[in-house]
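Long-time lurker. I teach an intro course on protein structure, and each term I like to show students one example going from raw sequence to a predicted 3D structure in token notation. This year I'd like something fresh instead of my usual example. Would anyone be willing to generate the tokens for the chain below so I can use it in lecture? Attribution to the forum is fine with me.
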Amino acid sequence: MTLDEILEAVAGEMIVAPPFPVDVEHACASDLMSDVLMFVKPSMLLVTGLTNPQAVRTADMAESPAILFVRGKYPPESTIALAKEMGIALMLSPYTMFDTAGILYVAGLRGIGKLSTVRQQ
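-- Reply from a regular --
Happy to contribute to a lecture. Here you go:
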């Protein structure tokens, strides 16, 4: 799915355009960046409400080409500057994370699939 298709589906806004054409096949929706790093898939869209620079650093480590911020939360300038420097696209969805994920799923974007049960000690 292209970023333009994602933006159209969620009535979103491009904040930082990617430096090259981007297609994503999977998405991960989380505000816990440690969870994102555990469930990495190539060219995965990161859907989050966390708008600080840590989200961009996590996307970089996960090799995610784009972040979609939810709940209409516009990122601070420090996040925008870092995304431009790292070549990571930033987008904005006016919907909640749950609604955004559902809209994208219906539009054809898939998650990362079934996971094993993790028991806390």
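Some talking points for your students: The chain has a mean pLDDT of 91. The longest helix spans residues 77-86.
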